[in-house]
Amino acid sequence: MKKLIIATRGSKLALWQSEFVKAELEKAHPGLEVELSVMMTKGDKILDTPLAKIGGKGLFTKELEEAMLRGEAHIAVHSLKDVPMEFPKGLKLGVITKREDVRDAMLSEKYGCLEELPQGAVVGTTSLRRRMQLLSLRPDLVIKNLRGNVNTRIRKLKEGEFDAIILATAGINRLGLASEVRYFSPISKEHIIPASGQAALGIEIVDDAEVEDLVSVLNDADAIVETMVERDFVTLLEGGCQVPIGVNAQVFGDFLHVKAIIGLPDGSEMISEAMSGTRADFVTLGKALAQKVIDKGAKELLERAEKIALSEIF
Ligand SMILES: NCc1[nH]cc(CCC(=O)O)c1CC(=O)O
Hints:
This protein is α/β, with parallel strands linked by helices.
């Protein structure tokens, strides 16, 4: 193969991620030409509705997948946390890359960190996972919806609509945006558990051995182990992004630890659990943790969370 085509969204973060993969592939395979094919997805067009209401995951990938299935592109680079668990026939998850910083972060023009936010401060996020964990720490906060790509969200912060906003540290670091705001403060995983797959890239590929072989140089063993555990956990809970689920696994040498939290969007009821094992347990640990929270009533709680999310919040 001489030329590999990457289907990509046009947002700054998507372009950064696709350019990164292009550069890495061209470095690993001298002589290979990699080209970006930029397209709009439904998720890029609908900017004013919370994602939980319009179907969430899949919204940002469908058009890219269609291009691959038509043979117009070979791969698509996604933030793994936005990648659905199942793929259309003919496509698969070919690569999981090394993770950036997995933590969420608080950005503000006025306050240095969560602890400094005054009573009743207005915090922007549309993620139910972030809303739940923020309100459980600080029930006094006022959570306001905030959509749009990373750059749009920072612009809205600077326009003064919010005292602070919450974004993934990975996106800020990749785009080099930390200096755009006065305060940028990553939030400890003890306070906010990140989303499944956060900070890794997932490369979706056409089911073709040559393509798979070319892109496989970007696989990261630790990221594969960690995100497998996280994705298994979410799959067993049948949680889309309409439901508040935080789950994060981390390997330390041969040791593997995972913790998760699920609950109601206002943080008033939550189930939180953790488990440890060895690295080799990565095939079972996510499922085992899911069973543990299911035994504590997680499915019923998530059903209530979903009803509340769809009816009351937005
Ligand atoms: N939901 C959108 C999204 N998908 C991936 C990232 C950031 C990068 C990453 O987590 O890999 C973001 C923005 C955000 O949540 O702040």
